[in-house]
């Protein structure tokens, strides 16, 4: 079996702890707050929310989630699923325009055993990918290079979404 080494994720994994019923949901906390930039919420739609991943695999790594706290697909209404997929499509097209990736990884980790770091609140990952984005840095330097800060990318994305809304 091949192994995928991701040492840049250690800060996330080392800080993680098993959830309890009292553990907060960063998506719900962000939705309840008024500071979208600080909570990295890029877009709110009637049934979905787009959040920048605080621990990105690549520049532009987004999370698309239902606005309601749901942990399984069966708990979502058909209208929720439709809007989430429409939002995934919209954000993928926007990332294509803004970042010009060669492709995307889009996926849902359903349940803790499947890798969900927040198993109580479904969220789809959109990870832009470029040919050669796994270069010598992770292999030899034990370092993943993210070419833009979260704040700079948030501003870039937010400005583009604001123009789209006009």
Q: Average pLDDT across residues?
A: 85
Number of domains: 1
Structure class: alpha+beta
Describe the strand arrangement of the main beta sheet, using strand numbers.
Answer: 1-2-3-5-4
- Distance between the first and last residues' Cα: 50 Å
The succession of helices and strands, N to C, reads: HHEEEHEEHH
Question: With helices defined by DSSP (H or I, 4 residues minimum), what is the helix count?
Answer: 5
Rg calc: 16 Å
The CATH architecture classification is 2-Layer Sandwich
Strand content: 15-25%
β-strand number: 5
Determine the CATH topology: HIT family, subunit A
CATH homologous superfamily designation: HIT-like
Question: What level of helicity do the residues show?
Answer: 25-40%
- In the CATH scheme, the class would be Alpha Beta
- How would you characterize the largest beta sheet? 5 strands, antiparallel
